[in-house]
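> call design_seq(struct)
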């Protein structure tokens, strides 16, 4: 008896999950969509679909300064911040070159990223797939998929990761007025400002409930989606102490 039916079923399930992810991202792009929620959905979908242990996303503001605007775990967020602080790492190379960067084993890339590699290994990450968020000649960030297994990223993962990043990029860059650059600047600045408040809210919840930062973020995100409210707005209320349900 062969295992072909099982393989076919697994393939069909993955294809359906992929369709669902693109539909979910597309549905987010409504007139008043929340950029922060869009990017959070992007990293969540990427981890689920592409055999990654975690994902992070760097985005540039109107002055070209990069910030971490989405991550699937606290370790990932801190590693992305570490890259920015030390100006070294695969995600930065991806943005600078406006091209995908793949490392199947960080141990082989120690010379390339002597500061970044030990930091990544210290939290268990040993490989990465980074794809640019770009539209034609404009690159505004990168989606970065980290894994705790060497060679975890398959060749077919690259076009899928790039496709997910492209959908989000189009959403951010979509033209809502004749002055697209002004709209883009406002969207990115709002996303970065919301991220600061979200990090504050995570800290508040973590302290109040005596839980980890990842669990605190899960609580914020779950409340936001269950009540159909923007993540940034929920975070603001938590910081202000006006949302008793998340106290």
């Amino acid at each position: 008896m062969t295992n072909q039916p099982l393989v076919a079923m697994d393939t069909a399930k993955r294809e359906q999950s992929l369709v669902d992810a693109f539909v979910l991202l597309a549905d987010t792009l409504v007139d008043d969509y929340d950029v922060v929620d869009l990017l959070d959905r992007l990293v969540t979908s990427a981890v689920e679909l592409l055999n990654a242990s975690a994902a992070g996303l760097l985005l540039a503001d109107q002055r070209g300064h990069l910030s971490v605007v989405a991550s699937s775990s606290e370790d990932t967020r801190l590693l992305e911040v570490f890259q920015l602080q030390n100006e070294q790492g695969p995600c930065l190379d991806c943005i600078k070159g406006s091209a995908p960067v793949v490392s199947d084993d960080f141990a082989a890339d120690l010379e390339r990223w002597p500061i970044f590699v030990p930091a990544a290994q210290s939290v268990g990450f040993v490989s990465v797939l980074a794809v640019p968020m770009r539209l034609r000649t404009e690159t505004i960030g990168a989606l970065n998929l980290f894994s705790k297994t060497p060679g975890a990223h398959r060749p077919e993962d690259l076009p899928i990761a790039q496709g997910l990043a492209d959908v989000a990029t189009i959403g951010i860059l979509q033209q809502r007025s004749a002055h697209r650059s002004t709209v883009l600047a406002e969207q990115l600045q709002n996303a970065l400002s919301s991220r600061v408040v979200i990090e504050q809210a995570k800290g508040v919840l973590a302290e109040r409930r005596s839980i980890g930062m990842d669990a605190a973020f899960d609580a914020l995100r779950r409340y936001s989606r269950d009540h159909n409210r923007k993540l940034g707005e929920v975070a603001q209320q938590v910081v202000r102490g006006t949302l008793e349900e998340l106290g």
